[in-house]
Batch of 4 targets.
Target 1
Amino acid sequence: MPVVSTPATLKPSTGPIDNAEVLRIRNDFPILDQKVNGNPLVYLDSGATSQNPQCVLEAEQEYYEQRNAAVHRGAHTLAVEATDAYELAREIVASFIGARFNELVWTSNATEAINLITYAFSNASVGRGGEEAERFVLRPGDEIVVTEMEHHANLIPWQELAFRTGATFRYIPVNDDGSLQLEHANTVIGPQTKIVAFTHASNVLGSINPVETLVQMAREVGAYVVLDACQSVPHLPVDVKALDVDFAAFSGHKMLAPTGIGALYGKAELLNAMPPFLTGGSMITTVTMEHAAYLPSPTRFEAGTQRISQAVALAAAVNYLKETGMERIHAWEQHLGQRLVEGLGQIDGIRVLGPRAGEERIGLASFDVDGVHAHDVGQFLDDKGIAVRVGHHCAQPLHRRLGLVATTRASTYLYNTTDDVDAFLEAVAQVRPFFGVK
């Protein structure tokens, strides 16, 4: 049987996470037990890509060693076992976000998931999909709304969709502190709005957006809601049904899984009405030389050879997170996030973006060092074995709005200790003196 287990077999841990438990958790992550530039690795770049526990590595290896075959295409034993493992993985991951198995489409990443939506809407707008797909047709005068804090993956696809269909592209601006100007959102979201797309948690600011408020605004005008959940699904409990979003996208490599696997959630009635994005084998019912008919969701969106081993590994990652407990992980990361913000706030010449100390945020902090470019900050920290992200974090418009070109970002996960944060803060305090900035 597959390495991944069903959710019912899991017994989540209880009580708050502390440093002692994190040290035990770290033993499951082989890559963390190394030195970088002669120093113990302090990995604070999980907002970009998380590390993999041993059970996830073993799940993917076990798939290739024991049941590697094409899924949904053969009747031999290996093909049946591969198909079972693939679909069990879908059930596990769908359950993790409160969805049904037929509401989860495998993609390569969240970027592909969002592009899947936009191209499906494009196909509907040129007459593909029949009467069922007419609800997705965009015309000149229709409006697509995003926010000024979006990652490029939840910005550029909507810009391109507007270009292809003639729809108008609009956005909800942010305040000087990066928070959404909710008081002006009702002037942006209006009767012509067809899509409202926004991030659940900002990959730059660390802020958690008011999903309920934005969903209500969208519902009042009959717009579809698309949630970028890349920074929320890995770090806090997410129930897409409770949030009442129409679509949500997230990536496996940010939640302990390998690269090359992500997922799109969509309400079943919407996915089944959407025309496909990619076409080819495995997603059809009948094909003639003149016509093709497509399978229901999610299969209609999974053309070609599927991401089988990656899906199995993502399910193993989800099981690891469930066993640890998402509420516990969220609480621990909030603690680390507050430690980051409070510590950075005590260092001269540091500007921290996003919520202030004491306000809710996920476990990351982006900051600017006065007089030192972010790339130099990152190199200085790397010399000490501390891995962080530098640049605009695929959010150029947000940085431009805040008057910055680039920032340094430290992002935590369940395998980070308070000692990691303290080592990082100690190193940041040395940056300006090292570069001779006063």
Target 2
Amino acid sequence: MAVTSEKLFNKYEIGKLLGCGAFAKVYHAREIATGESVAVKVIQKSRLNNDANLMANIEREISIMSRLRHPNIVRLYEVLATRTKIYIVLEFVKGGELFAKVAKARLGEGQSRKYFQQLISALSYCHARGIYHRDLKPENLLLDENEDLKVSDFGLSALNDQVQADGLLHTLCGTPAYVAPELLAKRGYDGAKIDVWSCGVILFVLTAGYLPFNDQNLMKLYKKIYRGEFRYPKWMSPGLRRFLSRLLDTNPETRITIDEIKRDPWFKKGYKEIKIQEDIGGIPNEEEKQLVDLNAFDIISFSSGLDLGGLFVDKYKTTEDVDRLTVEEPPENIIQKVEEAVKAEVGVVKLRKKKECGLEMEGQNGNYVVGLEVYRLTDRLVVVEVKRKAGEADVFSALWKDKIRPVIVRQPELVVAVN
């Protein structure tokens, strides 16, 4: 992929390479219409075909980040795809990693407090929505141009629906120096409590300039973590030491909670709670409740070239049965356009509205039944999906392609349609 003068769907101009990960490259890009900077994570689909765990992580990251609207969390704008690549378009955070800042020198308690307060605000928001990060560390905390913190990288995050019958999570994940002792015990853990532990390690690193638990021998490192063996530097204030002792409590049952953190004397100095409006805070408003959620699996699999057939049984067997297109328009406008186009064909189509944002169309002679639904992809994009439920495929084809589809598609599609 070229790093200069490449245009992505005539919407983003790709710029310099910002970084390379194990499975993705991240580029700086500019939205052509607005001039706004964004970051574009580029993933080769061929990597996903051969790695089910990696695909699951990508799905989870997209699904989770699409729900999050908080000033201290990196924003996901949209997900695009070609036949060979997936493009995750993210907020561009120009200040770099918090790790780079603390690597130069330890921070004062005042500056550390500011970053920690922003981290807890973001984490409180996530936990209230059943989302647990599970890989918090300075490398995953970015700083913007105003020196405000942004939490990133939700690839190892978990949702409430992953909690097992015992009320705990069981997947082992995270970065060794930041993992909680109960996770090492392999007996299940509370996602909120391990995030709090990681926050404690981060706060220690910010104010001390080094890790509380560190050893080149991994087993010795884990033993220190499990026993809670660390020493405070002499320059730490008594209030911070006491606070850290509660964050780095090896017993998850007595470890400080998010609500208790917010009431702690050291923490709450200068702290102002951020109020998130429900319609932008991950909780659907009335209009959004009528929309069917589009999960990350669908986003990734919409474009040709990624064979996911072995993972599920699809009752729609052929490409003639399904058509999907991506449109940058409000869902209610799309439904209205389809209704008008169908009603113009008097005596040809019976139209029934569905409770969700969708329609069902039936030929007058019952020679076909077709469902149309609108799924929200991002704040700006929706996917229109048409599925043939009964009847001959070619009977509806002319009406769809000649009459209905043209009134929906007024611009180049941003995701390759399956048809």
Target 3
Amino acid sequence: MVKSGLMPSPTQRHVLSALVQNVPGVLAHISGMLASRGFNIDSLAVGETENPVLSRMTFVVVGDNRVLEQVRKQLEKIVTVVKVIDVSASDYVERDLLLVKVQAPSGPRRAEIRELVDIFRGRIVDVGPEELMIEISGRENKVQAFIERVRPYGITELVRTGRVAMVRSDSSAAAVGQNSRVIA
């Protein structure tokens, strides 16, 4: 018997977008609140929005619908949170960004790496005598696949952003009214 009214669901990744007041301490407050209640943040990206007094936090939490509901309830209690949307309940676009330095001495290995970059629609953003710095953006699985393809060449350094996501324009009006969870 499910008391919350939600049907049991398998554990899944939920992409949440929180519009928050752009004031010091908001990130620490929200991430601390989630951690203190045992919710793990799988991915986190924060940045200013089109309105400089607001920031958008996009984060991924793992769990069933009960976990999602608990996260939502906890976020409702935070004064600096303006609105929260469960982006993953709608049709959305998501992206991760990767910068990676790969060992690439001049010659055939460098050419092979350049071909991989083209296949993955990436860009070489810096060229050194023995390394290339590559930028890849896309869905998490694309970024992960690229990492696995260049790993044999020797990754010197790697940095990734957290996931960012937006509900698609043609479905946003319907999503806000039907599928997504909005906290005002």
Target 4
Amino acid sequence: MTAPGGLPQVSLVCAALLGAVAVLTGLRRPGLELRRARLLLADVSVAGAAGPGGPLWPPAWVGEWGGRLRRSARERRELLCLPLGCGVALWGESVLPLIAAAVAVPLVRRRIAVRVAGRDRERCEAAVIELCGTVAGDLRAGRHPGEALAGVRAAELGPGWDAVPAAARFGGDVPGALRAVGRRPGAEGLQGVAACWQVAVDGGAGLAAGLERVAEALSAERDQREELHAQLAGTRSTAAMLAVLPLLALLMGSALGAAPLRVLLHTTAGLGCLVLGALLEGAGLAWTGRIVRTARGEEV
């Protein structure tokens, strides 16, 4: 099926979809005043090198649009499924890969969000361990608890952390501020820090020793989790390899001239095999993920 000009209809669909993606990625023209300011600053910055009135190359808009494209690619990596789907759709002369790519976008977005949340959690946990060690060291050196905590900067714990040094500096509710920040995923260790602070203020117990115990417990838990992660790396690698094998089979079949995509996308038996294979592939990945989550002790 072709368009009036001889262009395959699937090419028109792919082009329209990619155009819509380019619009939705938010690549808008910047304001006129901002553009003028950037050009003016660029003129000043290169005046000494290129001489007065010298040509600017590359133009300012090249770097500007390049930076916006890089930021958009980092923030919306799941949209890369659409160009891949367009490529497979053009290769197999069918719209089905494009539909599958569109369905995969929210799934990939969710997977990326889970990974980003996991990295944020690890950074928060490392920041809490470093906080405990820093404050305990300052207390061992003879500094006042409020002074030691007020000097800590922990941007990894989010904007809510700013209330903790302020409370320590001006005599506020430090345990309450610590518990509020400790509700963030990965910062649960601050609940123990708040308990140690409360006991030290009310009963005169050693705060430095309590913070050191909290840091040791958090470090031991992190080491155990990393060891388990390393032990499960083989299982995840095997699952990834098995998931890629069908794609390698398609490439090998195409290289041998068997045209597997045409069989899968344009025949009834091929479509049935494609649906069944996709279901089995998804079931296998879900089963492997369940095994890994069970081994980690997470909810399934």
